[in-house]
Amino acid sequence: MFASYCMEPKPGQTILDTCAAPGGKSTHMAALMHNQGKLYALDIHDHRIALIKENAARLGVRILEVQKKDATEDLASAFPNMDRVLTDVPCSGLGVVRRRIDLKWRLRPQQLEGLTELQSAILERASECVRPGGLLVYCTCTLLKRENEQMVNHFLARHAEFHVEKMVPKPLEKYRTADGFVQILPGDENLDGFFIARLKRI
Question: Is 196 in contact with 3 (CB distance < 8 Å)?
């Protein structure tokens, strides 16, 4: 929900959610938009596409179009000039380890290299869809700097047309870092670990 609020979705906007399954953030944004505008929700797996559609139907969301897409490939040709783009990328999940105990045994250091490459590719493709003046939100449920701050800073070093938008919803101000990112740690107000970066295109 915090990620959706950080998107600041407004009625009439056009919004892209690049890694949308199971659809919680997409449907929440649709509610914040009062079901007015257009929302595109993407995922690469058929069974997860079905979850998004199921949740949208259950909640009466009318503005959501669900498509099967690989977010590491070209998106801008199909989704140009978006007002908002959300990238809740696949990550190591270390912020939710209290609910995913299996990660302690399953996750291996060598897996991180592949994850960061995937995250960088998705962030790159998502950024190409943002209109001038639009907002790109990057978020993860992990705590590792290489997936969070370092990932965003490396992106910003390549893209002078983006800068960190330090204004965040009031409930998140206490979690804002000196760089303007949001970093929630596991246990903060009984929350899971989560990272959010709001990047505005000039």
Answer: yes
